[in-house]
Design a protein that fits this description.
Layout (H helix, E strand, L loop, with lengths): L3 E12 L2 E12 L3 E5 L6 H8 L7 E6 L2 E3 L3 H6 L1 E4 L11 H11 L4 H14 L15 H13 L5 E5 L7 H16 L3 E6 L2 H7 L2 E6 L2 E6 L1 H8 L3 E6 L2 H13 L4 E4 L2 E5 L13 E4 L2 H9 L5
Parallel strand pairs: 3-8, 3-9, 6-7, 7-8
Antiparallel strand pairs: 1-2, 1-4, 4-5, 9-10, 11-13, 11-14, 12-13
Helix pairs in contact: 3-4, 3-5, 4-5, 8-10
């Protein structure tokens, strides 16, 4: 079997006139966490749907855990855990009952089901709420339950589609801790997100998507160094001042990005002639690289 948990070669998918995935190549080595980073509409969720055979590629090859898709999608799904972007829990069942249903669906042997459910509850810190009807749980608890549901059968590969979308920072940090624990245990993780900090915090590598394509891939620090340099200058002021600073930076060959009432001039460590506008120096970051590569402000 391949050492890659996921392999895509020239995968394409369109919906009518809309090209959602435009021929991507992607390898995810077993035991690693890859962050699929991109703005809304970049093709992240469609890529996830291709990997679960919820959508069938129009062209290209897809392999998950050594299984060709869509021909062997059933065998692949049995070894994968999926945490969808949208909450699709059964609100009339209890926390434990939701997990028991999926333990049966994933064919966890009957003698092992209770232990499997207990383990999933413990991982998600939901043991005390095992008897609670899902409708009584907070949004953060429901997201943890979705994660527990995807883990009840001890999958080799975990697919997380925007796992913390819509959550407040405290709950998001709680989910990060759970995901990081799985990462440290050697579970292969593919996580789509548009949160820069999420990708930096959890992923071994990041693949940046834009318009259905992967436009860059690497460790966050490597992407920053390659695409925007090490240092930047932040210029604040009225639109006229920012326009002047942008023009001056462009004349010196420096890339820039606008962020509200500020202009970031990138790669300033390469300056040799003092032609840079005045501003506040700072380190370049992955958000700079993301915006430069995708042309989209982070939401």
């Amino acid at each position: 079997m391949s050492s890659s948990a996921i392999v895509l070669r020239g995968a394409r998918k369109r919906f009518g006139e809309i090209v959602a995935v435009a021929g991507i190549d992607l390898d995810v080595p077993a035991g690693t966490c890859l962050g699929l980073l991109g703005p809304n509409g970049a093709g992240k969720s469609t890529t996830m749907r291709l990997l679960t055979a919820q959508a069938i590629a129009d062209a290209g090859e897809i392999e998950v855990l050594g299984h060709r898709l869509p021909e062997e999608s059933k065998a692949a799904r049995a070894r994968c855990g999926v945490v969808p972007q949208l909450d699709n829990l059964d609100y009339e069942l209890t926390t434990r009952e939701n997990l028991e249903v999926f333990a049966r669906l994933y064919r966890v042997p009957r003698p092992e089901r209770r232990d499997a459910v207990d383990r999933a509850l413990e991982i998600a810190n939901l043991t005390a709420r095992a008897g609670s009807v899902v409708d009584e749980l907070s949004g953060g608890m429901r997201r943890r339950l979705l994660l527990a549901r995807g883990l009840v059968h001890r999958p080799e590969l975990l697919l997380l589609d925007e796992p913390t979308v819509g959550l407040d920072p405290q709950v998001r940090a709680e989910l990060w801790s759970l995901i990081d624990t799985l990462r440290s245990e050697g579970v292969t993780i593919l996580m789509s997100t548009h949160y820069i900090e999420e990708a930096e915090r959890l992923a071994d590598e990041v693949a940046i998507m834009s318009a259905g394509r992967i436009v860059a891939r690497g460790r966050p620090a490597e992407l920053v160094a390659e695409h925007v340099g090490r240092e930047a200058i932040e210029v604040y002021g009225p639109p006229v001042l920012l326009a002047e600073a942008e023009e001056r930076a462009a004349a010196g060959g420096f890339a820039t990005r606008r962020s509200g009432p500020a202009l970031a001039v990138l790669g300033t460590e390469r300056s040799e002639n003092g032609s840079l506008p005045e501003g506040h120096p700072r380190s370049a970051n992955l958000e700079d690289a993301f915006v430069l590569l995708t042309g989209a402000e982070v939401e």
